[in-house]
Automatic annotation (TrEMBL):
This is Pimeloyl-ACP methyl ester carboxylesterase. The keyword Hydrolase applies. PANTHER family: PROTEIN ABHD11. Residues 14-243 form the AB hydrolase-1 domain. It holds the Pfam family Abhydrolase_1. InterPro entries: AB_hydrolase_1 (IPR000073), AB_hydrolase_fold (IPR029058). GO terms for molecular function: carboxylic ester hydrolase activity. Keywords: Hydrolase.
Length: 268
C-alpha cells in the first residue's frame, strides 16, 4: 500500500519530480529545483522512511514507485518528468517500467538497473550504534560517527538525518527498516513487467564514479531503448553536489528537448 509522501513544490509549469537517494531528502535538491523552477513546477518528495515522510517496513523499489505514482495522481500531475539519483534513480526506473503511461520522461543520475554490493550497511550500523538520545551536542555525535567510519566517510551528509527535539536528538531516517531492507535497496527488482520503457530517458553518471560501468550499458539499453548516456567530468556518485552547474545544464537542455517532443506529439 502506498504511503503519502511529504513534499515541497516550487515554481509553475510542466511538472518535474526529483527523487533523492539513500540517506537524503528532497531538500538536498533545493538548489537544483530552484533553478529548474523558472520553467517548471518542481516537486521534491521525501522517500518513505526519509525526511518528513511516513515510515514503513518495506523499502522495495516497486513499493517506492507506487508511492511516487500515488503522489503524481494526488497532485494531478500530467505525465511529469521524473529525475532520480541513486536510490531515487532505481525508483524512477521501476515506475517507468511498471507504469510508463504515468510519466513523460525519466532522467537517472549515477545508477544502473542492476544489483550492487552493499556499500552502505556500515553507515547504517554506525548510525544505529550512536546513543543519540543521550548526546548533548551535534558536535559530539559528529565526532563519534567520524571515529566509527573514518575520515573519508560522508559524516556531515549522514548527520543531515539528525534532528533535535528540545534537549534530545533522534533520527529522521528509519534506520531499522533501512538495515532490514538493504538487500532490496542494493538490488534491482526482477519481478517488474517483462517490457521496456521506450519514452525519453537520460542516464547521467559521474566520470569518477564506478556506479555505471561499461558493462551496465547493454542492460540500460535493453530496458530503456531511447536512453541517452552522458558523463560529467570531475564528478563522483553525488553528481549534483560535485558538479551542480554542469548537471543543471545537462538537465535543462534535455528537459527542453523532451518538452519539444511532447509539444510535437500533442499537435499531431
Amino acid at each position: 500500500m502506498p504511503v503519502e509522501l511529504a513534499f515541497e513544490s516550487l515554481g509553475e509549469g510542466p511538472p518535474v519530480v526529483i527523487l533523492h537517494g539513500l540517506f537524503g531528502a528532497g531538500r538536498n535538491w533545493t538548489q537544483m529545483a530552484q533553478a529548474l523552477a523558472t520553467d517548471h513546477r518542481v516537486i521534491l518528495p521525501d522517500a518513505r522512511n526519509h525526511g518528513a515522510s511516513p515510515w514503513s517496513e518495506s523499502m522495495s523499489y516497486p513499493d517506492m514507485a507506487q508511492d511516487v505514482a500515488a503522489l503524481i495522481e494526488r497532485e494531478g500531475l500530467q505525465q511529469p518528468v521524473v529525475i532520480g539519483h541513486s536510490m531515487g534513480g532505481k525508483t524512477a526506473m521501476a515506475l517507468a517500467l511498471a507504469q510508463p503511461q504515468a510519466i513523460g520522461g525519466m532522467a537517472v543520475i549515477d545508477i544502473a538497473p542492476q544489483p550492487y554490493a552493499d556499500q552502505f550497511g556500515t553507515y547504517v550500523a554506525a548510525m544505529r550504534s550512536l546513543d543519540v538520545a543521550a548526546a548533548t551536542s551535534r558536535r559530539e555525535l559528529q565526532q563519534a560517527l567520524a571515529t566509527k567510519l573514518g575520515p573519508t566517510a560522508p559524516v556531515d551528509f549522514l548527520l543531515q538525518n539528525l534532528r533535535r527535539h528540545g534537549e534530545r536528538f533522534d533520527w529522521r531516517i528509519n534506520l531499522m527498516a533501512t538495515s532490514m531492507c538493504m538487500g532490496d535497496l542494493c538490488g534491482f527488482p526482477q519481478a517488474l513487467p517483462p517490457c521496456c520503457y521506450d519514452g525519453p530517458a537520460l542516464f547521467v553518471h559521474g566520470a569518477d564514479s564506478d556506479y555505471v560501468p561499461p558493462d551496465a550499458v547493454p542492460g540500460i539499453r535493453a530496458l530503456f531503448p531511447q536512453a541517452e548516456l552522458l558523463s560529467i567530468p570531475d564528478a563522483g556518485h553525488w553528481v549534483h553536489a560535485d558538479q551542480p552547474a554542469a548537471l543543471l545544464a545537462v538537465l535543462q537542455d534535455w528537459l527542453r528537448r523532451v518538452g519539444s517532443i511532447a509539444t510535437t506529439t500533442h499537435k499531431r
